[in-house]
Design a protein that fits this description.
By secondary structure, the chain is of the alpha+beta class. The protein has helices spanning 11-15, 34-37, 52-63, 82-101, 110-113, 144-155, 158-162, 225-235, 239-246, and strands at 166-175, 180-188, 192-198, 202-207, 212-215, 220-222, 249-258, 261-269, 275-281, 287-294, 301-313, 316-325, 331-340. The protein is 23% helix and 30% strand. The chain starts with 10 loop residues before the first helix and ends in a 16-residue tail after the last strand.
Length: 356
Amino acid sequence: MPLRTSPYALLIIATGLGLPAAGQDQAPPPDKPAEQVYKNIQIFKGLPSSELMSAMFFMEGSLQVNCGHCHVWEDFSKDEKPSKRTARDMIRMVRQLNETQFQGRQLISCNTCHRGQSPPDAPLPFAEVSDAGTGKADQALPPAEEVFRRHLQAVGGREAIGKIHSRVMKGTRFSSEGWNSAVEITREAPNKFKDTFKLQAVFANVFNGTRGWNQDNHSVRPLGGEDLARVKEDAEFYRDLELGEMFPIARTAGKAKLNGKDSFVVEAKSVEGDRRQLCFDAATGLLGRIVWFEPSPFGLIPNAVEYADYRQVDGIQVAFTIRHLRPDYSLMDEITSIEQNGPIAANTFEKPVMAK
């Protein structure tokens, strides 16, 4: 699957699925129907080509399989595998159920039955025995503004954070698909960002403060839409200071367990109106997870970034483990070195140039 934004949209091309190539200096092409861009499209005729990949991602995550479960790696258009024909029948069934029983709403999907398994297996659970009346009522939830303020203080406070203006993180990126690579993440205040690693070729995501690009082993493509919005959030160098400004609509919705620890869950909307869910460690106050939701023809696909193993560097707390989570594939960055306030080359955030 390809690394789409900060570390997400390079994986499809890295593993052989392939996307239509885009010219290095061209704007994104008009969104044609899928059958005009890809070969042997039968069930998704009329679907905008930009939505086809999200449909594939949703099915992969629902069954916890990879592209090769249905497709022939050498030629994805072939129909040699019975599982591909079965998938078409299942999509027709799901569509019919939603149209005839739920007025076209996307209430039934692959995940309704499969839930990460192929074939589906959903044994009845045992009823939990309740020890009612012995637990203590939770204290009132703190308002989102207080949760944001506690995180700011836990990271190091406004003055300490304001002294940092650049950060270079180096380590190893691990994939749920089995590969790993050295990774380097460069940030510069107020909002410049570069994420790069190498497999068969160099892969990068860049935001120069105004525009963003994604580089893979085919070309350099401009980022737009949700991809651009997500890399802009990654690029906010002083996010810890600006959570209230970035998410002006926010409320503490409850408590949940995150990696075994109690966390406050904040439901929020960005300035652009994008929905986000933020989880903060109830004990330390540190941000543990940000969740957003990507639309697909079958429903919303959850995406998350998790932050763990915070350590003090130059007077502030920085996460040394960063996980990028999706149902269909995930990445984990294990950081081994962080340099702050060092020199950043002037051309670091320029548009990547493909080798001839």
